[in-house]
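The methods section describes the discrete structure representation at length, but only in general terms. The central task, working out the structure tokens from the amino acid sequence alone, is never made concrete. Nothing conveys this as quickly as seeing an actual entry. For illustration, here is how one protein appears when written out as sequence plus structure tokens:
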Amino acid sequence: MTAIGRQLKDHTRELQPYELQNALWAFARLQLKDEILFQAVCRCAAGSASEFAPRNLAGLAWALAALKISDLPLQQNISMAARQKMERFEARSLASFAWAFAETQMVDIPVFKAIGSKVPAFKNEFNSQDLSNIGWAFAAVKIRKDSLMEVLSDASLAKMDKFKPTELASTAWAYATLHIVDEPLLEQIASKAVAKMSSFNDQAVANTAWAFVSLAAPADDLLERAAAEVLPRVPGLVSQNLSQIA
């Protein structure tokens, strides 16, 4: 990949928008960081962001977030292009874009407002990961929109059997962070979490327990199950997780 990176660096201006996005996405998937290449790609992409299709804008934003690259000029251009093309975003791209901007702490009110306005149209198309990512994204940037969270709740309840442990935990964390007590949703999350608790990683256990305690939501079975799961893991738990569970 190092040799590929060198070749790409010398030809970034010859690449089409989707090729720039694919290059950065590939390095991000492999968690490979090549600062010189990324600088070249970011400079080129910043000047052509308006030419990117919605799925490529989402892929570019995702790659920046996955690699923890902060490039304000590029992110601002991505944001502007995304707002202009929001009507053309599809469900998966919309969810990925929301996660990426939140992951990089890009608190862009206009772009999150635009994302929120599109969510209802896709409520039946989102999968469990999409739903949990969108909820997590709005909570992570501290933007509370009750109508949006109601739509996410309805869609999540319809797909609750598909939620993985990390998705259950992220959803619970999002509602707790935004101080939203959605009893039907929390009840279902608690039920599924009890059944799947052995598959929860340490962070998921901590986030789920914290969410229910924070909201004072009825969840005795969940908390007992979480405590039983955590005890054998105590020697390996980091202090932050312990403080959330305690």
